[in-house]
Amino acid sequence: MGTGMMDWLALLDDHWGWLVFAALLGMGEVLVPGVFLIWVALAAAVTGLVALVFPISVPLQLLLFAGLCLLSVWGGRRWYTANPVDSQDPLLNDRAARLVGEIVTVVEAIDNGRGRVKVGDGVWSCRGPDAPVGTRVRVIGAEASVLKVELV
């Protein structure tokens, strides 16, 4: 093994290396929040505490860290599934749902419940009551990329 790798492994031989690693990962989570580094930081901290209490070899510490990483990420994922974080904009990635309530113009007559409406600078398929070109309609819902409309 190269001397660079040996230097890094020497840091892990001491419990302080794990605890410093945990602190750095925790700071990384604060600087670049992704709700992931914190779980790896937790695994590093527990590995450091175990290494403090029980003098275990570096390979065993690495195995313990790997197992704790898997366990903590799995546990964190379960926790976030059970306790979802509220979004400031829950419709951010649902463009069709964001259009509900908008008044749009029919550009291809709605005939037999199907037509097309102009939304901004684009044209969307729609379903609703029959209406001629130029009629103003309100978006009341969406199914996939088809808007549901009603007469204004």
SSE inventory with pairings:
Blueprint (H helix, E strand, L loop, with lengths): L2 H10 L2 H17 L5 H17 L4 H25 L12 H4 L4 E9 L2 E6 L2 E6 L8 E8 L2 E6 L1
Parallel strand pairs: 3-5
Antiparallel strand pairs: 1-2, 1-4, 2-3, 4-5
Helix pairs in contact: 2-3, 3-4
Provide structural commentary.
The chain is α+β, with helices and mostly antiparallel strands. It has two domains: 3-82, no CATH class; 95-151, OB fold (Dihydrolipoamide Acetyltransferase, E2P) (Beta Barrel). 48% of the residues lie in helices and 23% in strands. The protein is built from five helices and five strands, in the order H-H-H-H-H-E-E-E-E-E. It has helices at 3-12, 15-31, 37-53, 58-82, 95-98, and strands spanning 103-111, 114-119, 122-127, 136-143, 146-151. A five-stranded mixed β-barrel has the order 1-2-3-5-4. The termini are far apart. The model has no long low-confidence stretch (mean pLDDT 87).
Number of domains: 2
Strand order of the largest sheet: 1-2-3-5-4
Q: Per DSSP, what share of the residues sits in E-state strands of 2 or more residues?
A: 15-25%
User: End-to-end distance, in Å?
Assistant: 75 Å
Secondary structure class reads alpha+beta
Share of residues in helices: 40-55%
